[in-house]
Amino acid sequence: MGGPFPENPITVSFELFPPKTERGIDNLGRTVAQLASAGPQYFSVTYGAGGTTRDRTARVVDMVRRHTGLPVAHHLTCVGASRAEIDAQAQRLWESGVRKIVALRGDLPEGQTLAPDGYHDAAELVAGLRRVADFDIAVAAYPEVHPEAASAQSDLDHLKRKLDAGASRAITQYVFDTDKILRFIDRARAAGIEAPIVPGIMPVANFASLKRFSEGCGASIPDWMEAMFGGLDDAPDMRAMVAASLASVQCRHLAAEGVTDFHIYTLNKPDVSLSVCRALGVPARISAEEAA
Fold it and tell me: Which of 24, 53, 77, 132 is 20 to 30 A from residue 162's alpha carbon, by CA?
């Protein structure tokens, strides 16, 4: 690419999840301050299955907005609520100043179905949110196909439905085979999808946990990653270096193909995410305390 950094300016956003404890939320405040130093376009905060983290998600969204002054996207799902309940929640978010939403169907808890009077998929949810207020809405995309989709084409058709309903961009599930992301973007463009498609980047925090999680969400783990992270379970510093290098190389490959916006799944851990940003020419400001 002709230099240490990609030629085109890189922008990033950071995803957080709401901790389960008060101490965790306090610790997250320090993490957010570190991540904010990289100047992200926005933060996003996830929402538990069936709305199980609704109150904590709202608290984290408010905390991040107050401490950083940056936009924060509140995740919303269809699961566990009627249309009226979701619309009322969306209205409260708008009145509180939230302008960004990540709209998802959400994972169904075992034995639970979508409410008959609820939104039945993310496309319906997007359309409903657009009726409530002029939100900036992102939706999910699956380069390796959603596990419940009938086919790759039907999955792509559903993505187009979500965008046609009023979403402004799509954020992808993490994918470690970068060529799959590029091929997916090409297929989306050929299908008439013009909205930005933002790759989700997953720095590897714990390889064994990543493998278990990936089995459930349909994300493949290339064989070469087994060798790359083998033997590093008890070597966190080395694992972090490898994770940062892997994510940086992936982003640089994508940037060389013209993809310059990235959504980083931080897992509430700032160090590797900030290392990736620095490798991409998005250097964080280092405080005097950190430099000492």
Answer: 53
Q: Is the pLDDT score of 111 beyond 70? A: no
Strands 200-201 and 197-198: what pairing? unpaired
**Catalytic position from the list 15, 22, 215, 289:** 15
For 270, counting Cβ atoms within 10 Å of its Cβ (0-12 exposed, 13-18 middle, 19+ buried), the class is buried
Rounded to whole angstroms, the Cα distance separating 216 from 180 reads 19
Residues 6 or more apart in contact with residue 245 via CB below 8 angstroms = 279
Per-residue pLDDT tens for 191-221? Answer: 999 999 999 999 998 898 899 999 888 899 9
203/216 Cα distance (integer angstroms): 18
Q: Which contacts (CB < 8 Å, 24+ apart) does range 51-59 have?
A: 51/77, 51/79, 51/80, 51/81, 53/17, 53/18, 54/89, 56/18, 56/19, 56/20, 56/25, 57/18, 59/18, 59/25
Q: Taking the model in full, what pTM does it have?
A: 0.92
| Confidence grade of residue 51 (pLDDT, cut at 50, 70, 90) | low
Q: What is the CATH number of domain 11-282?
A: 3.20.20.220
CB 202 within 8 A of CB 169: no
| SS3 assignment, position 197 | strand
At 157-190, the pLDDT tens digits run 999 999 999 999 999 999 999 999 999 999 999 9
